[in-house]
Amino acid sequence: MESLRVELGSRSYPIHIGASLIGSRELYAPHLGGGGAAIVTNVVVAPLFLEAVKRASGARAEIVLEDGEQAKSWRGVERVVDGLLAARLGRDGLVIALGGGVIGDLAGFAAAVYQRGVPFVQVPTTLLAQVDSSVGGKTAINHPLGKNMIGAFHQPRAVIADVATLDTLPERELRAGLAEVIKHGLALDAPFFDWLESNIDALVKRERGALGYAVKKSCELKARIVAADEQETGERALLNLGHTFGHAIEAGTGYGAWLHGEAVAAGMVMAAELSALMGHLKKTDVGRVRDLLRRAGLPIAGPALAPERLMALMSLDKKAAQGRTRFVVLEAIGRAALRADVDDAQVRRAVVAAGQ
Ligand code: NAD
Ligand code: GLY
User: What is residue 319's predicted lDDT score, i.e. its pLDDT?
Assistant: First the structure.
């Protein structure tokens, strides 16, 4: 097992990474106050891992939700809160989020508001959750008018990332998680991007050593950014590489048709093309980005949507944010930067260059 730390003063916390960790009592014990624990999970994850986590944490209640993004709703929050109240969990209790990013975001948000905030521990069981959503304290539910529109920053007390849980993950979900791993190398760390080029086949084959390293490296990079810019007033926005395009792809195709990681993959190709058009990134590096994503089994072109439609969706996003869209562009592989001086014609050309 390897342990990292997210340095946030009195709210600092460990990230434990390794195989077969979810049943380790000693990882939960430091976070159990006198009030016991309640586990929030879903119907897919519960049959796989609930018993092990229950035994190790001594949790006295479990709240098992339906599978899918729709759980990130007010109804989902109500169900969690109902369960916590039924279990008489007090402010000295602990919420354990066991599952992918949906459960982590929902349970984290419920923990942020239940009795004005109770501690929680993330036990992520998807690659996306282990490398991204379980670290950094962003918690949220969706509104019919937009994803993650209701939320809170609420840091977990610990993250327990057990790579053995990834054995049962559907292939497509694993590949979607790899998109966020690649994003970390591409935006922040050229040697990690090189390592991914050499090890992508091992990752797709779920070799434990390779997965453990990719999770550790991603968490290290994300922990550093979160420590420097917890509430995304600057540097943390670099983690949104490919996301402006990706959100438009998700919205334009109807949420759920493309997995988030798939949309981010095509979005990173668009961001790379944009960076080349702006004269920052070499054309050969755009080729490296495409090759790596393709070898990970991810889309490297956009959906069959008119570029104008994607542009309109991006500008809707811009209106929602009440300002200019700031794009994350690449100055080189491993070096992302935030730019507001991007004109629409260049963005359109980048979408066309990425292809369909
Ligand atoms: P998810 O939670 O829906 O999990 C994907 C699927 O895998 C689900 O069907 C789930 O039940 C199943 N599953 C989970 N673990 C499994 C396992 N070990 N074996 C078999 N099946 C398993 O999706 P996700 O990709 O993990 O997370 C997506 C969510 O994360 C979105 O709501 C997104 O908004 C959010 N997110 C949040 C942040 C953040 O910083 N908070 C960052 C990125 C994404
Ligand atoms: N997933 C981007 C962030 O946590 O900031």
Answer: 56
